[in-house]
Amino acid sequence: DQAGAFVAGQHVIVWLEACDNSGQWSRSQVQELAIREPRELIDSIQEKQNQLLTQVRELVDTQRRNSQLFARTWELAHQAGKVGRDQMDLFRDTSQVQRAVAESLGGSTTPQGLTQEIAKLSELLTRNRLDGTEIAAELETLSADLQELSVGGMAAATTTTAQTAALAEASWKDDVAIAQNLIDSAAQAQEAQSEALRGLEKLLDHLSRNESLQEIERELAQILNQQNAIRRETDRLHLERLAENSDASREQQQGQQTALSADQQGLARRLDDWLGRAGDLQETATADQQAAKSALVRATQSLLSAQATALMRRSTEEIRDTQLAQAATTQQ
C-alpha cells in the first residue's frame, strides 16, 4: 500500500499479472497514470466546462434562428391559405435542424452530447474523490437542467416540429387549404420551440455566471501581481534616487516616476471597476456557487475595509511628488 507515497507530477506505470492452474502467466496491457494536484484537476475541468459555454451559445443561436425561420414560414403559408413548395421545404429543414439541436444535448438515445460530456466530468471528479467540491455541485445542477430540457421542451419541440412538417407536406401534396390540425400543430410547435429556447438560455446563463466568477478571480490575481510589480519598481526607483546625483539620471528617473504614477492610477481605476463587477456577481450567484460567492465576498470586504483603491490613489500622488519611500510604505 504505497498510495500515500505518490506526489503530484509523478507518473506511475501499472499492469496486472495472473497465473492459471497450469502455471501459465498472462499480463495485461501497461497503463501509465499521472499523479495530479486536486487544484490542477479542478482547473482543467473548469476549462472544459467553459468550453461547454461555447457549445451552448451556438445552440442558443441555432435554436433562435430556427424558431424565427419556422415562424416566418408559417406566417407566409397561413397568409396564403395553403402550403406552397417553398414552405414545405422550409418546414422540413426546420424539423431537421430541431432534431440536430436535440441530439447535441445528448440523452439516453444519443451516444454523444452535452449530457455525456458533463457525465464524464462528474465521473472524473468522483474517481478522484472530489465529488464534494463546488464544481461537482455545479455539474450536478447543469446535468439536472439538461435532463429537464431534454425530456421537456426540447423533446416537445422536436416532435411537434416534425409533426408540422409532415402535415405541411401532406397538405402540399393534396393541394388543399390549410386544415385545422395543421394550424394546431404549428401553434404547438412554436410554443415548444420557445420553451426549448428558454431552457437553452437558462443553461447559457448558468455557464456564463460560472465563467464570470472564474474570470473575476483570475483578474484579481492579475491586479495583485501588478501591484506587487509597482511596489518593486517603486523600491528600485527610491534606491536609484538615493545613489544617483547626476542631472541626466535625475531626468531619466523623473520620466520613470511619471510612468509609474500613471500605472498606479490606472490600476486603482481597474480595481474600482473590479469591485463594482464583483458586487454584481455576488447578487446573481446561484445556490451551487456559494463557495465561490463566499470567497468573492471575503475578498471584496477585505479590499473595501483596507481602502485599497484610496491607498492606490495616495500612492499615485506620492510617486508623482517624489515621495518614493512613503509610496512604498503605502503600497504595502
How would you describe what is shown here?
With 332 residues, this protein is mostly helical. 77% of the residues lie in helices and 4% in strands. The strands form two sheets. It has a two-stranded antiparallel ribbon. A two-stranded antiparallel sheet has the order 2-3. A hairpin with a 5-residue loop joins strand 2 and strand 3. Helix 1 packs antiparallel against helix 3 (114-127). The two termini are 48 Å apart.
Q: Oligomeric status of the shown chains?
A: single chain
Low-confidence stretches: none
- Helix/strand class: mainly alpha
**Biggest sheet, strands in spatial order?**
1-4
Q: Using DSSP, what is the number of strands? A: 4
Give the topology string: H per helix, E per strand: EEEEHHHHHHHHHH
For the largest beta-sheet, the strand count, sense and barrel status come to: 2 strands, antiparallel
Number of helices: 10
Mean pLDDT score: 85
- Beta-strand percentage? under 5%
